Structure formats: C-alpha cells, structure tokens
Amino acid sequence: MESTNKFWIKSFFVLYCLIFANVSWSSNAIIKAPTPGWVTPVALPEINGFPQEQIQNGVYYLLVDTQVMVDQQQEPQFYLHNASYIANQAGVEGSSQINIGYDPSYQRLVLHSLRIIRSNKTFDKIDSARLKLIQREEDMDELIYNGRMTLNIILDDVRVGDTIEYSFSRQGMNPVYQNIFAYTHDMNWTVPVGRLSLRLLWNKPLPLQYRLERSDLKLIRTETANGSEYLIQGDQVEPVKIESNTPAWFSPWGIVYFSELKSWEEVASWSNPLYRDVVIADDNIDQLVADIKSQNSGIKAQISAALRFVQDEVRYLGMELGQNSHMPTPAFETLRNRYGDCKDKTVLLLSLLKGLGVEAYPALVNTEVKLDTVIPNIHAFDHVITYIEHQNKRYWVDPTRRYQYGGIDSIQQPDYGHALVLRPGTRSLTAMLPTQSKYGVFVKDTFMLPAKGEAIFHSESKSYGWNAELQRQRFEDKGRDQIQREYLEFYQYYYPGTTVQEPVEFKNNTRDNILITTERYRINNFWQDNPEQGRHEADFYANDIASLLSMPGELNRVHPLYLPHPKHLEQIFVLNFEENDWHFDDDNFVEDNDFFHFSHDVKFDNTKHQLTLRYTYQSKTDYVAPENYADYLEALEKVSNGQSYGIYREYPSETTSAEGDPWYFYFLNTTTILLMYGSLYLLVFLLWRMDSGRKSDESDSVFFPVSIAKLSAMWILTFGIYGAYWFYKNFQYIKKQKNSASMPMARGIFYSFWYYPLWRELKEDCTTRFEHSHLPGKMLAVPMALGFLVIVTTGNRSDIWLLPSLLLSALLILPLANYILFVNGRESQALAKNSTWSFRHYLLALLSTPLCILSAGSEIGIMPNEAVVTGSRILEYDITLMQRRGTINPGDEIDYFYSNAFLFISDDGNGFTQRHVFSYWKDDDDSLEQEQATYSEVQDIKVDWQSELGAKSTVTIVREDGSQFLLYVSNTDKKDKVFVNALKERWQSQR
C-alpha cells in the first residue's frame, strides 16, 4: 500500500509541477543581458601543454571563475564564468549540453555569454543554441521535491578542439536566510583546472568571517571604497585523487568558507524562530497526546509511543519549495497531512512531547561533515533530529527512522559527533554522547552430522538495536520468499547440496527491539571429497565476521580507511557428531588492538560428541589513520587464519593391513614409484642387450629397415632415444659398406645434426640403384634437415612442446625410413625381425605412456612443472587446498609459483602473492610444514643462484625478527631469475 501511495503522490506532484512550470515559464522567460559592470574580466589560460593524461571524459576545464557581490542594499549576486576545451570525441558529447539550475521562487537567472572558440575564431552561440527551461526534480526518488528549475542549453556544431565558454548570473537569496550570508567554494577537484579564480566583494558593515583549508592557494583581502574584496587565484590547479573506502566525513579537497555570522550562538538565534513558531497544537494533537497518556503508563513509555507514532504513522515526504527548504510545516498541518520531511516530523514530535511535559528541542546536524571542523554558518546542516532531556539523561532520536521498537533506552541513537541544539541560551555546539543500547547480530548454527546420509543444519540469528531495524526494513521490502531464496543461494555457495527443510521464520520482539530469524536446511553430500589426502572434509566459515576482516587491496594509504562501526557480531557453530570416534583439542585465540577485538574459541565435549566453535568481533573505531595503516594490516594478518575451522574424516577401509591401512598404501609414494620405474627401465635395457647379443642373419638388409608403425611408436615412447638408435644402425651399415673411419655411435647420439648427411647417403644409394629418385630433392631436403635440427634440439625445453616435437620429428624422418623399406622390400627377413614387437617393447610402451601424460599434465597444471609458472597456471583445486591450509587467503592472487614435487603440487610449493611470500613442503613423516611472511615482515631477500642445467636456486627470506626460511626455484629456462626479480619488485614497492 505504501508503494502505491508513493506512486500517486509522485504522479500528482509531477502533474502539479508541469502545470506550475508552464505558468512560470511564460512569466519567467530566459533573460539575456551583458556582463554586470561590477565583474572583473578573467582571461582564459593558454591551452598548449595541458595535462592530457589527467583529464576525464574528454574535457579539460580551462577556467572556473566565480565572482560574488554582497551588498547591504540588495540581494547577493553570483556570477559564474566557465570555459572547457574539448580534447576528444567523448568531450564533444559531454560538453555540447549545459545545465544551469536555479530556484525561480527567489532567484533570477541571467545568461550573459555563450560562445565557441575554434582556431582563434569566436562564434557567438547565444542565439543559435537551443535554450529551454525544464523542471528535473533530481531528488524525487528520495521523496524530496524542491521546485528548482534548470536552464538546458544544447549547442550546435561542437567539434574536437573547440573551447566552449559561457557565463551567467544568479541573483537573489532564499528569504528564509533573512539576508544572512554564507558561502563555500571548492579549491580543487578530481580533474585538473587551467585557471581558478574566486572573487568576493563584501559591501556590508559587519565583518566577514572566512577560513581557507587544505589548499596552497592564497586568499588576498583588499579594502575597497565600499568594503572589502577577497580574491583567490591559481593556475594549473592539480587534481586531487581520493582513495577508495574513505570515511564520509573525510575530504582531501581544498575549500574556503565565508560566513557573516561569527558564532554558533548567532546561527542558533537565526534557526530558533523557524521551529519555535510552528510547534503549535490543535484539538487533534491534544487528543493524540491524551491517547498516548491513557495507553502507556510511565513517561518513558509515553516518549517511546510518541516517537513511534511519528516514525510509523507519518510517512516521509519532503516538499522543500522555496522557504520550506529550512522552514518546517506547523505541527497540526503535518499531522493532518500524515507526511513530512525531517523538519516537519521533528516539529510534530516536539509538539507531542510538549503535551507530555517532556523537555525536547530540535537538533541541527550534518550526516557527512563534522560540524566542529567548519566555521559557524547557516549552510552547515543537512538534517534535523530531536534532543530530549529526561531524568538527567540525554536522548538523541530521529523521527525519520523506521522500524524502531522498544523503549527509549533500547533504541539505537544517532551519533553525528556534534549538533546545534536549538534551545534558549545556546552558544555553542553540543557533543553527541548518546547512550548506546544493545546492538549487534548473534548467530547460532547447529549441524547434525551423521556417519552417512544428509546433514541437518539449523540457524538462528538474533539482531539487536539498529541491526534489527535494518533487518525489518529488508524483510518488508523484499518479502519472505525472496529472502529465503537469497539465504539458500548463500548457503549453497559453501554447501552445494543445501535444500530448504522448513521456510524461514521471523519473530519480532518489539519490547526489547530484537528480531529473531530461524532457518532450517538439509545438506546432501555435506562432506567434500579429497582423494589426494584419502579423506572427506568440511569447513565452517564465520562469514559476516570474515567480511569485516578482509585484507584491503592497498598496501599503503595516504587517506584514512573507513571501517564499519559500531559493529558487534558473534557466530557460534555447534557440531553434533553421530559417531563417537571424534576428538578435537580445545583452543582459544584473542586479538585485541586499537581497531577491533576478535576471538576464536574451540571447545569439544567428548560426552556429547559435540564441537563448539565461537567467533566474536567488536569494532572500536570508524576509521584507520594512514599512519596506523601498517598496524591495521598486521592485525588483519594475525587473524587471517582464525576465521574458519576445518574438520575431516578418513576414507573407510575395507581390505587393510594389520595397522589398518590398505596393503598398497605403502607403495603409493614418490620414492617407490621412482624405484619401480628405474628397475623396469633397467629390465628393458637388459632384455635389449640379451636380444642384440644373439646372432641374426642381416645379410639381406640394406641400411636398417623397420616398419613405419614401430619406428613412429618407439620414437615417441622413448622420447626420441629410439631415434638415436635408428641413426646409429643406419650409419653402422654405411660404415661397413664404404669401409670408412666414421663413428656411427657419435652420429647416433648427435643425430639431430645428421639428418642431411643420412639423406645424402640414401640419395647416392638411390641414384646407383634406380633411374628415378624415390627421395625428396635437395631443395626440400635442406629445409627438412634444418627443421629437424630445430625441433629436436628445442623440443625438450618445454613439457607442453615435448610431445608435438616428437610427432613432428618422427614425421620428418618418414621419407628416409620409407626409402629404406622400399629398398629392402616386403620379404626382407631383417625387416620382419626389426619390426616385431617383443615383451620389452610392450613393457616400454607401458612405462612410457604415463610419462607422456605426466609431461603434458605438468604443463596444463595437473602436475608440477619443471619450471616456474604464473599463478594462472595453477588449478582451482590446488588454490582451494592452499586456502584451506592457510597458505593463502581468499582473494590472494599468486604471481609466480614453483613446485619441487614429483606428482602432486600439494606436496611442495614456493610462491608469492600481492600480499606475501610462502613455502610449504611435506616432511619424511608426511606431515605438512609451511612458512610465510608478509612483505612488511621481510627484512631481506638473499639468492644463491645455480647455473647447472635443471638445478634449483635457493632464495632465503629473512624476516625483521631475524628468522628465515627458504624457497627453492628451478633455473629451467632461467625462470628462477624471473621469479626472484618479480618477488623483489613486489617487496620493494610495498616496503
């Protein structure tokens, strides 16, 4: 119903504004006039050499010229003169339309100039541009209507390289300010400005207060015939870049304040009548006060009832037209309308409290700027709340808040630092030290973990104080079904088999301001399979707390870091095990610092088979100062491994040894696999020697004939070693035929260089035997020989290139092998013998196939690579495993990594991220050891380079406390230097 009401209110108001706009436009035509005589011309700066790399949206702001005249006899006049240079096409689109806002109820807008400067020529556009007054109501979505108009200017014929220059004046002041002057102006922005000029003529008898902050520019005051001139000018104003996640009150930009008033007492004297004169009761208000008294016993209960009525029964709607921007609506009118903004709702609440005999006053606050940091002025506030005094206690309440329940002592009170309380005799700001009621979120997650089947998961969360308010609003906005879907998707991220057992329930404790949420789920396939470790695993995350303790992206800051505050969270996991063979050690961890308090407690009840994990977090501040940022990062590092807890259960054993492990368990390790492979390869060699020792009749053979199938298969399965044997046998035949002094064994070993000589021998044999050539010609043989040389000599440099190089080299050898087959003929006994597969050949194929798979697997990340790799080459499974072990944190990105393991990356690894450097390895007893250090902890990085092919360089990480640990990095392809150089660059940049 409320959303429907909002729709009709907006529709009615837009219709009203359109009708009003048509009337006012006809009477307020667009005014064009020359520049006023009191304005001092400011020339445009030169465009040459503008900071192209710093501009945004294709626009360089050449000139920001503002001039203000304040006179005792007339309303203030504000003259603005701007110029922008269009640097690219994006600037054409963005700058060819100009919008100038003003309030027609008290301001007069005058357009003075509008021109385009192109190649030193000036084109006047004030008559050709499309000018139109429109009413935009930019805050309508926030239910605020201010009636402001906008002069929309659309320029024609705008091009890259143009300078757009325009000037206009706003004349007039909101009558609510009673001719009291205050003004602020920024001194820099996020983009560069060619020339900044601010000139203020002060022609009133009272002195003008001013303050210039966070700017190197100078304010020059000069006495004139009528008063004073204040001037600030600067060229090439540098942009100010603000870091992300800064507090709302923080501003790095320069600013100047001007104010006619010299004290907060004078500001209060101006504000007081605005509220005093509208706290007016009528019969309806009197009746409402009587009802509150009759329905609530005790003055505190009556205060709470009055507040809740204004919050819940009077909807928020701001009709801030003209003087209504600061002047509240009378209380009786707000009650009759049942809508109002912060001023109106405050006045209504004050009227009710007055009827109840409670002392209360309006309190002007600023939700973004700390009031104690600005000079007293009438523009210093953006919100109004209510200040109450009762029984020597102070209360700060906000009538615009919703979903607040409970007594006045149990609701969350706002805290904006300081407020201007509009009470008689106010002379200064009042520090807001509200009584903090209980707040926070307390979650209890209970798991029933059976030996088999699905797990049962129940979660109960209690939200107190302002946390309860936020949850109530969220539930009403989205509805239970949408909330249930979001909760389910959240849990399915951690436990994919989660389904809803019963719909989510909400219980609203309005007396104590508590909201209780109960959820019930079933989880199929709760345990995560880890075959590498031979077990099933489960992890439990303190999700909400972990989000508050995540490591920021920056290692250094120059601006303060925003921290959510106040925050109090507690999450308890209760794990009930069906089996009684579980055991856990009790543990406790506490980190208490200037920023937060964090604790993690582990308790195991052996009689109940119940494990309890308790996580707590309490914030202490809403920001981290830049000088304390390193301490904050160090505190986060200390708690990085304490925000989750993992449990596991071993695979059930069926066929086991006396100790309970499968008989094959003792053989599945790297050492035994290497020994087994070595023994079997030795057996292949012995079988070959035995077979080659037998005499065989090769008298009919020409060269060394072997079938294409066997040659290709053995070439690949032996990783090219069979190729050396094939070359050796062919050159051995040539030596016998020519009775030469050549060395066939050497030519076999270095066969990559002997492709062309073998082709030449075969070509000579072909010329002698046949009239026609059965071999490629020289023009083809030469590039084939060069290709063979390159492929064979470079193929072993990369695991992923090894198999393709074997295939290509075998393909290039086929023309030579095919000629040998042709010469010998199909009936050759030597061909039959050499092409036969014996036991050793099958054994060799059986041994070599896994090695081929291993070679490719190491390159695609399934198994360790022989060289350093980038983090992107590591499989997601291994990344997840590192996160569970605490080697890296979620969000860490590994830059470079090397594993010295034979089969599994999980057995050994060395690497570094944007945050830290780490090393882990398995000891002889198969236990995992690991070391790590953040860059702020590293004092030095020492390297012992190794030049021997395939050796491992040693990197020593020396910590600030003198302790150290080692990284081992392979020098294959000189990647050890890439690893170390990148590591040192990370370390140096973040020291």
From TrEMBL:
Query: Which keywords, in A-to-Z order, does the entry hold?
Result: Membrane, Transmembrane, Transmembrane helix
Q: Does the keyword field hold Transmembrane helix? A: yes
Write down the Pfam families for this protein, in alphabetical order: DUF3857
Repeat in keyword set = no
Instruction: Please list the residue ranges annotated as the DUF3857 domain.
Output: 77-240
Transmembrane portions of the chain: 663-688, 708-728, 740-758, 779-795, 801-821, 842-863
Indicate what this protein is called per its UniProt record: DUF3857 domain-containing protein
Annotated source species? Neptunomonas antarctica
